[in-house]
Amino acid sequence: MQLLFLLMFKIVRTNTANPDFQLLVNELDKELAVRDGDDHTFYAQFNKTVNLNCVVLAYMDNIAIGCGAIRNYEAETMEVKRMYVPYSQRGKGIASFVLKELEVWAKELGCTRCILETGQNQPEAIALYKKNNYTIIPNYGQYKDVYNSVCFEKILGL
């Protein structure tokens, strides 16, 4: 089943300037504004797309159906950002395929670890990361003392 679905869509590496990425990020921001409520302004400041040079898009029939990005966080560590799949496409494994491509790209860039932050109000994201072998870690950086944040890491295999 997974192989059949993989044949139905393609994964493209790009950057933040891609208009399809910008469209999906706009949809993501609208969804997060509702989920995060009063906390949205705080989180939004850390989710700018400037300097995201490693962006992955999933396409089906030339329509962007998912995205994600990585950016340098520290030596040998990439931070996963802007993961999104529209409601109409969820439950098909698209996010996992995008995430795996981001991990491959991170390894190609010499990284051994990916980290990320998501929110308690995003149970689907938490489930996605757990399903893909990410483990919860203490909140890092700007999320250190933020109760609603849930931070993860994955040590990338060889």
Short description:
The chain is built from 5 helices and 7 strands.
Provide a descriptive summary of the structure in words.
- This protein is α+β, with helices and mostly antiparallel strands.
- The chain has a single domain, classed as 3-Layer(aba) Sandwich (Aminopeptidase), CATH 3.40.630.30.
- Helices cover 34% and strands 31% of the residues.
- The chain contains five helices and seven strands.
- The protein has helices spanning 2-8, 19-36, 40-44, 94-108, 123-131; strands at residues 10-14, 54-60, 63-74, 77-84, 113-119, 135-137, 149-155.
- A seven-stranded mixed beta sheet has the order 1-2-3-4-5-7-6, with helices on both faces.
- A hairpin with a 2-residue loop joins strand 2 (54-60) and strand 3.
- The two termini are 26 Å apart.
- The model is unreliable at 1-5 (pLDDT under 50).
Q: Name the CATH class.
A: Alpha Beta
Query: CATH superfamily, please?
Result: Gcn5-related N-acetyltransferase (GNAT)
CATH architecture level-2 label: 3-Layer(aba) Sandwich
**Strand-pairing-aware structural class:** alpha+beta
Please give the largest β-sheet: 7 strands, mixed
Distance between the termini: 26 Å
SSE order and pairing:
Elements (H helix, E strand, L loop, with lengths): L1 H7 L1 E5 L4 H18 L3 H5 L9 E7 L2 E12 L2 E8 L9 H15 L4 E7 L3 H9 L3 E3 L11 E7 L3
Parallel strand pairs: 4-5
Antiparallel strand pairs: 1-2, 2-3, 3-4, 5-7, 6-7
Q: Main traits of this protein?
A:
158 residues; alpha+beta; seven-stranded mixed β-sheet; globular; disordered N terminus
